[in-house]
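Entry 14. Two folds queued back to back today. First construct below, sequence then structure tokens.
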Amino acid sequence: MLDVEKLLTELKPEYFSIRVRTLLYVSGHRLPAVNVIMNSVIEAINSRCSVRSYEQKPVPKDIIKEIVEAGNQAPFTSMTLSQPWRFVVVENKEFKQKLLQTTLPFWKNAIGGMKETAPELYKMAMSIYEAMDEPKDPIYYNAPVIIFVIGATNNPVSCALACENMMITAQSLGLGTCYVGFGAMVKGNAEIVKALELKEDEGVYGPILIGYPKVNPSEALATALDGIKPNKKAPVTKWI
């Protein structure tokens, strides 16, 4: 006969699914919620990766709101008495095109400069670009949702923490994300600045792309994206 209590005691945390939220019932036996929740958070962190190919389907608004709320719960410096950020969610296709037209020249200039100085990086970037479906978008990757985190230029750490919260939450909900630095280079376009209500002392953090990862990208694109996967090493840690 199966000894359920012994089984629950011996099972390692990683055996529990990320989709388990509060309590796991096995044959009427309750597993302490804290173990499951801790594991689901760690699993979301460990499985998160930058996604640069998305399915062209909308993300439900209630899910977007949940992701934004997670960002809003991030820690912030005690020098400010409330959250030093705000969020702008972009779904409109015409506005996305304006964003791309504004930021693409910066990308082209940077990539062009790599041709001589960093040929391997140039080759990787161009292989992804050439493998992309039309219309090609090497900045926002045709993501269904773009979230701009906007905050004071003197408070970048707090705003970055809000970005991380959103990416981890999206991962836990089965969505892909990507933090795109080129996507923040929009201050030269007065129309975009007005739409984002950007002030002189504000900066753009992220933006964060959100969408459902493409299930079957072309073989060429899948190969090109595999070429830029980070080689994550074990942490360098000193214990005192």
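Second construct, same run, same settings:
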Amino acid sequence: MRIYVLAYFLLASWVSAQTSDQNKAAVLAVARPLVGEVEHGDNAGEFVEKVLSSVGLGAGNPWCAAFNYYVFREAGFEDRVPKSAWSPDWLRGGERRRSGHPADVFGIYFPSRGRIAHTGIVEIQQGPWLTTIEGNTNEAGSRDGDGVYRKKRSVNSVILKTYL
């Protein structure tokens, strides 16, 4: 009997890990083709307005956190993440750690604002660097940019949270 129970738990763990990897791959499959989408106006344009409307907002609002929600929703995981365009909502319970995983959410704390003020999605970690996919940023990595970009961020400069 003990061997059957052990086998069950080992199989359940393996299935869970496989499902988790598939879920993360689904999120990244949505995010990756969005790299290169740009604003048309200030926090506006067809794509940006679609992202903002996913959280009940219109043009003109910051949209990095709404981008996270849009991606997770399109991948089928809207019930696992906050439906929010407020970046601090995405990092509640997040932590500084040395490793980020695919489809983790990251946040950057801005002392001038006293809060997390930018967020995005981890694609992969290579050494101390995270490759991320972020909405409402730019080539320089601004928190108020003009599109969806793939960025490099130091794992030491972000707070991470795992949803899947």
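Quick look at the second one. The domain at 2-161 is CATH 3.90.1720 (endopeptidase fold (from Nostoc punctiforme)). The chain has one domain: 2-161.
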